[in-house]
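re: that complex we talked abt at group meeting.

here r the seqs, copy pasted straight from the sheet so there may be weird spacing, ignore it
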Amino acid sequence: MKTEDFIQRTFELAKLGHGRTFPNPMVGAVIVKNQSIIGEGHHKGYGKPHAEVEAFNNCTESPEGSTLYVNLEPCCHTNKQTPPCAQRIIKEKIKKVIICNLDPNPEVNGKGVELLRQNGIEVEYGVLKEDGEKLNEVFFFSQQKRLPFVHLKLASSLDGKIALPSGESKWITGSVARHFVHNLRAQNQAILVGAETIRKDDPKLNVRLEHFSGEQPYRIIFTRSGNLPQSSQVFSDELMSKTIIFTEKKIDIHLPSENIILIKDISEALHFLYERKLIALFLEGGSNLATTFLRNQHVNRLSLFLNPSLLGSGKNAIEDLGISLLDQRPTLQQIESRWMGEDLLLSGRLK
Amino acid sequence: MKTEDFIQRTFELAKLGHGRTFPNPMVGAVIVKNQSIIGEGHHKGYGKPHAEVEAFNNCTESPEGSTLYVNLEPCCHTNKQTPPCAQRIIKEKIKKVIICNLDPNPEVNGKGVELLRQNGIEVEYGVLKEDGEKLNEVFFFSQQKRLPFVHLKLASSLDGKIALPSGESKWITGSVARHFVHNLRAQNQAILVGAETIRKDDPKLNVRLEHFSGEQPYRIIFTRSGNLPQSSQVFSDELMSKTIIFTEKKIDIHLPSENIILIKDISEALHFLYERKLIALFLEGGSNLATTFLRNQHVNRLSLFLNPSLLGSGKNAIEDLGISLLDQRPTLQQIESRWMGEDLLLSGRLK
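got the structure back, here u go
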């Protein structure tokens, strides 16, 4: 196996923690001696041991003199409960460390590498850098911008409609696509919707996947009017403590008072969520909220499920974005396309 | 090589005539002796020899005792200038004929096979049947329905918009997609547009491809109001004799009188074109004409060029289709997707 193969393996391990590590990144580590893997580990969740520590603990023989592969620079800061990984690597007498990405956190960036080198350990970094950045796009973005990463989901016909004039829309995409949305929910910390979605669909907004053992995401509702029915499922089910309302007006809903937050605008809500370490947000609609986020350039990734049909007239997936020139239009980059049953999923970054 | 490989080869040969054979189908023929191809040919254009005749004429040795592969059933009817291919096959003492599709033309269907068998020739048919039907979808449709096949092109943003509210739209898709449209034009006999497209864009509506040696398509303009500027390029350039206007009102445009046709509706125009042997129509817009064709279920294939961007508000690619239930919406089948530079082309049959 080559260097890139071992780094690929750290990605695979890292992904086992998808949706559980936030606000931490997904990290995997592999310890290799004489071309054989003698220990592997990944960061299993926020507050749990780092990937390097897991890999050391899983070693089937002494790691002395071996090479450690890890997709993120080992930490060296001591302002947290767990001892820094760099110290552990030195203690275990690792000979060489091969890293994918440097840590974007200013407290660490390059300092982990420096500490290892000062202790005579050979260090290489930047292997499959872009792939690593993509894997941890949420973490990188939120570290750099001090804001949550917003992933917008849309589902429409080929002509950008989400419902007929009559309102009929429930099944515009097929069952495979609808099921996949639960995977996306599971990979995020919170689901965002507008009040209209609550009023019209009264959704559960939870992850419904077989064998799902992660934490259910928060349900975050944005309202301008404050018009929300107390009888909605999100205010009465077993997850009601994970329902947060951002409102521009005082409202009277039976929820813990700290779950109802008065805001002036979306930006204030995003800063609030960032401070609460909620950095992976999944915006599911409706079109008003999606439009507001897009207008304010607060969408980082768009996943669009396209049903290969035409509706003609009806409700638009997106309303007025306030664009007067084509050059100003939001454009997807690094797009991946994939069929989901009869529907086509296009997913890309918005920049 | 296997049977399927030789039939695949007939497809390749057939495609060399793409856009030149209408209202005839595209046909290729391969003559094989001792597992070697000794002659190949294709139908080069309407009024020219059939593929089988071309293949016989190109034989490098006597075809006696060999196998003929052809993607369409050899003709046996004598009500045309050229002698029927079945007779020629018998005369050349072909041992076996392997066919992809039977001829949908009721004058031929199965009768070519019958005639060959009566003359002691072994015949097999139905090899790669679906692929052959797709290759000649225009021919099959028009033979069965006695109507032209309409291929609709749309180009829009991901949210189904073709222009900003300001009207800015000229370059919604990139240069690769725009260039490819000329290939689609070259594969059709006529380009259809609404009067608004003529008024707004004053397009040439011709094929602009390097090394293009085929015939330029007809330009067919639909107008309700009759409001068309005499100064438009399509009424004054070197192809003006190939400009046809379908109008619901008498109009005063300087064109040969037989090029201006009064109609009551689209259906009447389609029957007129079918009678004139114009069966491969490429509908380029605008949205009003596209919507009218879709509403009346006159679109057989949709090719949608999606620019991976959002416009929000602006002009819709498609207007009201008069659908009141989701089940009634036009849906694409047998979809192929393909990136064209930055744009995604989705093409499928509408049924």
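couple things i noticed - The first helix of chain A runs from residue 3 to 15. DSSP finds ten helices and 16 strands in chain A.
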